[in-house]
Specification:
Layout (H helix, E strand, L loop, with lengths): L4 H10 L1 E4 L5 H22 L3 E5 L2 E6 L2 E5 L8 E5 L6 H6 L3 H11 L4 E9 L9 E4 L2 H4 L11 E5 L10 E4 L32 E3 L7 E4 L5 E3 L10 E8 L12 E2 L1
Antiparallel strand pairs: 1-11, 2-3, 3-4, 4-5, 5-6, 6-13, 6-14, 7-12, 8-11, 8-13, 9-10, 9-12
Length: 257
C-alpha cells in the first residue's frame, strides 16, 4: 500500500497522484450512506449554530464544525461540512483505513501521523457550485508551522466527470510554495490564488470512477466547476500531518494508524 518510487516521483513533479477504484462498490455505497447521514445531522445542528455571511455566502459554526451552504439566496443545500468525521462513525473509521494511511506516511514524511482536518464536499445535481482556484496552504499557514507536511487525499464517492464538476489540479503549481491571493477587496479574495501566478491551461481534470483516491499537495492550486449534470459529485477530503500535533478545528490531537 505504500507509494512506489514512480508514484513518489510523479507526486513530486505534478503535485498530485491518482489511485483508481481503490474502494469497491459496496464500500463506496457504505460511505455514500454515511455522508448522507452526516449531512442530515449537520443540517439539524445548523439550526442552532452561529450564522455569519462572507461575500454573500452563508456559514454556520456548531462548536468546531463549520457548515457552508450553497451561495444561492435562501438555499438550504449544504455545500461543505468541516470536519465531518465526528458526525458518523463510518467516516471516523475511514480515517484509519490503511489504503489511505499507508501512502500518507510517505507523503507526510513520517511513520507516525495524525489527522489535520477533513471535509465533505457535496456537489448536488444542477446546484453544486464551483470552487475557485486556490491553495490550501494560505488557509492553514497561520495555524501551524509545518504546512509543507499537510498532504490531502480526495475520496471520490461518485464517478467524477467534467459535466458534474470534477476536481481539477494545476499541474506543477505546488513547486512555487504558498502563493499570493487576489487583492480584490472581498472578504475571501485573499484565499483565492492570484491568477497571474499560475497558468490555467496546466489544469488536469480528475475524471475518475467512484472509489478512487486523488492525493494532492497542500500547495497545489486546485478548484472545480459547477455541477451541470443530473448526477451528484460527492467527495471526502482528508488531510494528515505528523503525529502529536492538534487538529485544525478542535485543537485535539488525533493520531492514526
Amino acid at each position: 500500500m505504500r507509494l512506489t518510487r514512480t508514484e513518489q516521483a510523479s507526486y513530486a513533479t505534478d503535485g498530485f497522484l491518482v489511485r483508481t477504484a481503490v474502494f469497491a462498490g459496496a464500500e463506496v455505497e457504505l460511505l455514500r450512506n454515511a455522508v448522507e447521514r452526516a449531512a442530515e445531522r449537520a443540517a439539524k445542528l445548523a439550526a442552532t449554530g452561529r450564522t455569519y455571511i462572507l461575500d454573500g455566502k452563508r456559514f454556520v459554526d456548531i462548536d468546531h464544525v463549520t457548515v457552508q451552504f450553497e451561495p444561492e439566496p435562501g438555499s438550504e443545500t449544504i455545500r461543505v461540512v468541516e470536519p465531518v468525521h465526528e458526525l458518523d462513525d463510518e467516516l471516523g473509521r475511514l480515517l484509519e483505513d490503511p489504503r489511505i494511511v499507508e501512502p500518507m506516511r510517505d507523503l507526510v514524511g513520517a511513520e507516525e501521523i495524525a489527522l489535520w482536518t477533513n471535509k465533505l464536499n457535496l456537489k448536488r445535481p444542477r446546484e453544486g457550485s464551483g470552487f475557485g482556484w486556490h491553495q490550501d496552504s494560505p488557509y492553514w499557514i497561520h495555524d501551524c508551522n509545518h504546512v509543507d507536511q499537510l498532504p490531502n487525499v480526495l475520496v471520490a464517492l461518485d464517478d467524477a466527470t467534467e459535466d458534474n464538476g470534477c476536481f481539477r489540479v494545476i499541474r506543477g503549481s505546488h513547486q512555487q510554495g504558498c502563493l499570493a491571493g487576489r487583492d480584490d477587496g472581498t472578504q475571501l479574495g485573499g484565499f483565492y490564488t492570484n491568477p497571474a501566478l499560475f497558468d490555467e491551461s496546466d489544469q488536469v481534470p480528475m475524471i475518475v470512477p467512484a472509489g478512487s483516491l486523488v492525493f494532492f499537495n497542500p500547495h497545489a492550486v486546485h478548484g472545480s466547476f459547477p455541477n451541470d449534470s443530473d448526477r451528484p459529485r460527492r467527495a471526502l477530503v482528508l488531510t494528515y500531518q505528523p503525529a502529536g500535533y492538534p487538529t485544525l478545528k478542535s485543537k485535539q490531537v488525533h493520531n492514526v494508524g
